[in-house]
Design a protein that fits this description.
- The structure is a single chain.
- The protein is about 35% helix and about 15% strand.
- The chain is an alpha/beta fold.
- The chain has 2 domains: about 1-205, Cobalamin-binding domain (Rossmann fold), CATH 3.40.50; about 310-640, tm_1862 like domain (pyruvate-formate lyase- activating enzyme, Alpha-Beta Horseshoe), CATH 3.80.30.20.
- A 9-stranded mixed β-sheet has the order 3-1-4-5-8-9-12-11-10, with helices on both faces. The chain has a 3-stranded parallel β-sheet with strand order 22-23-24.
Length: about 650
């Protein structure tokens, strides 16, 4: 049974476990802000297993206490080669605080969901401690927090423009994006005796060097210089222009090296690797994971993030949507990296052996569930492209959006003798399934997919993310017009009636996003009410580093046009926008009347609060559940960031 495995099946996290393996020294020690779950959806496990697969002795220090005498940082001793540091599967500040900057009471990556087991700005705190304790040992940082803070970035929680995380953390090297490819190259060089200071020509790493020093030579790279951090502090337009360069280079198949002066240092960001091949993806997912939390957590309670995904299968990475508020493409890339059918089916064979498995897969998907194996038809065209999105403002003619590979795989999963139902719990990119928007549907495979999805793979409700109803706001979001959501809903309802199914659509919306004003929120509330939705799964916009929306929030301009974009910034403005979601709550009625009278929009008062407002809401009404839980399920693949 999986729960009776020997302790040596997990990577060691205590000195006793190191001894059980017969080791007297570790080559590499990983420090993580998450509890250790040995599963391919958790970055620390993936990185640890890769290090192990390259022949290194690896140990993990999970959620060390940074407040006491720092004994946790010392318990595995000093590694032979280097420390690796990650804040975990989420940026520690997003993990800790709501959009209103209120401290969260739970942490999904900690046993029992208990908060308080990692510091704010965890990567920086952990690395500074290591540099104090072991000044001669190199530190490599990575994960979502390090990745999205690798260059000058606005920090919403401090309300400041901060330099690269390399400056404050004092780390030696930073790996950005998905770390498998740079890590393997780095490990092989380290094993040969190459010092950290010479690991400067590996793709997808960043480092600081003295400003007067010549850049490392690589004949295949051109170099693009950004405005210095000091210039950005004085000039918000320079910061906005910088972001455009970083995003464009991040979305190229053949990118340039980026540099930025920071004080008397120069930040160097080497170009990313090309998208992982199917073979490389399989190699990462097929490592010998136990797919279980470490046994030491048993008495402390379940780890919510693990419980959410323990019976799910991640089919691919990346997202070509390029949404302005989302970090997926910034971290995982816009090009889709897919696993082979064999690797996916092999994982399912292992999952069904889990002692708690009852025959139901909670999710077969990815960041957007229906992008598996999608790519450019002619890669030569992709080679010349630098667009941040393949589907905005229109779907690229060169993008193969066939859903055939998914319908074929879904059927194979359904045929597994131990699978009763395999659900698609990740959010579906509905615009790919609307013929008026997506013209690449010559063989009708989109219709085949949606019918199969509705009849076989919806667990009561289907989650989609129109995000707004205002076309002006949606353009800033890099999302399609809301009219296409209407068309999708018509098709969805028609097929649901055909098969006598009652599976409500669950749409997600965002308030106070750049480009959204109060009138837009009032119209959103009215239009969604008319469609039969009473919204409860809603989100207030949070400006996270390395997103277009963050840049607009901080600078007031769009980084691609440098033209002003109206943005709600004060707590009161943000709260006011969010209140329109809850027009049906009696305590908001008078406030809404006053706001709409002041805006000279009496027709919206009638729509929102008229006689119909007291009637029972139709069948599309949403069930109450935690927004955090639902949103994390929808964006499940974010769990694998590192």
């Amino acid at each position: 049974m999986m729960n009776e495995r020997p302790i040596t099946d997990w990577l060691p996290i205590t000195a006793k476990e190191v001894e059980k393996r017969g080791w007297d020294e570790l080559d590499v020690i990983l420090i993580s802000g998450d509890a250790y779950v040995d599963h391919p959806a958790f970055g620390t496990a993936v990185i640890g297993r890769i290090i192990e697969s390259e022949g290194f002795k690896i140990g993990i220090i999970a959620q060390p206490n940074w407040r006491d005498d720092l004994r946790d940082f010392k318990k595995l001793g000093k590694p032979k080669y280097f420390f690796g540091v990650t804040a975990g599967c989420m940026d520690s500040m997003v993990n800790h605080y709501t959009a209103g900057k209120r401290l969260r009471s739970t942490d999904a990556y900690t046993p029992g969901g208990e908060a308080g087991f990692r510091p704010d700005y965890a990567t920086t705190v952990y690395t500074n401690i290591l540099k104090e304790l072991y000044p001669d040992v190199p530190v490599l940082i990575g994960g979502i927090e390090a990745s999205l803070r690798r260059v000058s970035h606005y920090d919403y929680w401090k309300d400041q423009l901060l330099p690269s995380i390399l400056v404050d953390s004092k780390a030696d090297l930073l790996v950005y994006g998905m770390g498998e490819q740079p890590l393997r190259d780095l490990l092989r060089l380290v094993k040969k005796g190459v010092p950290f200071s010479n690991l400067t020509t590996i793709n997808q790493i960043a480092f600081l060097q003295d400003a007067e020093k010549e850049l490392p030579k690589n004949k295949n790279w051109e170099t693009v210089a950004l405005a210095s951090h000091e210039t950005c502090l004085k000039d918000k337009l320079a910061y906005a222009a910088n972001f455009k360069v970083v995003e464009v280079e991040s979305n190229k198949l053949n990118a340039n090296r980026i540099t930025q002066q920071v004080g008397d240092k120069v930040l160097v960001i080497n170009p990313p690797y090309r998208t992982m091949t199917e073979k490389e993806m399989d190699q990462s997912f097929d490592l010998p994971y136990t797919r279980l939390p470490h046994p030491k957590y048993k008495k402390r309670g379940a780890i919510p993030a693990y419980e959410m995904i323990k019976f799910s299968v991640n089919m691919h990475r990346g997202c070509f949507g390029g949404c302005s508020f989302c970090t997926i493409s910034a971290h995982q890339g816009k090009f889709i990296a897919s696993r082979s059918e064999n690797s996916i089916l092999k994982e399912i064979d292992e999952l069904v052996q889990h002692p708690d498995f009852k025959g139901y897969l909670s999710d077969i998907g990815g960041p957007s569930a229906n992008m598996y194996r999608m790519k450019g038809k002619d890669e030569a065209i992709c080679e010349r492209c630098s667009s941040p999105s393949c589907i905005h403002p229109v779907i690229c003619n060169n993008l193969d959006t066939s859903h055939k590979a998914m319908t074929t795989l879904y059927r194979k999963i359904d045929a597994h003798p131990k699978i009763k139902k395999a659900f698609v719990g990740s959010g579906v990119r509905y615009d790919l399934l609307v013929d008026d928007f997506n013209k690449n549907n010559e063989d009708g495979n989109h219709d085949e997919y949606i019918e199969q999805l509705i009849t076989r793979h919806v667990s009561g409700r289907l989650k989609v993310a129109p995000e707004h109803t205002s076309d002006a706001t949606l353009r800033v979001m890099r999302k399609p017009s809301f009219k296409y959501f209407h068309k999708f809903k018509e098709k969805y309802d028609r097929l649901s009636r055909k098969h006598n199914l009652n599976q409500p659509l669950i749409p997600y919306f965002i308030s106070s996003h750049p480009g959204c004003e109060e009138a837009d929120m009032a119209n959103l509330a009215a239009e969604t009410k008319e469609m039969g939705f009473q919204l409860e799964q809603v989100q207030d916009f949070t400006p996270t580093p390395m997103t277009v929306a963050e840049v607009i929030y901080y600078t007031g301009v769009h980084p691609y046009t440098l033209k002003p974009i109206a943005t709600a910034k004060t707590p009161e403005e943000k709260k006011n926008q969010n209140r329109f979601f809850f027009y049906y709550k009696r305590e908001n009625h008078q406030w809404i009347k006053d706001r709409l009278k002041k805006a000279n929009q009496p027709e919206l008062i009638e729509k929102l609060l008229g006689p119909q407002s007291e009637t029972k809401y139709p069948k599309q009404q949403q069930k109450k559940s935690s927004w955090l839980e639902e949103r994390r399920k929808m964006d499940k693949n974010k769990n694998s960031r590192r």
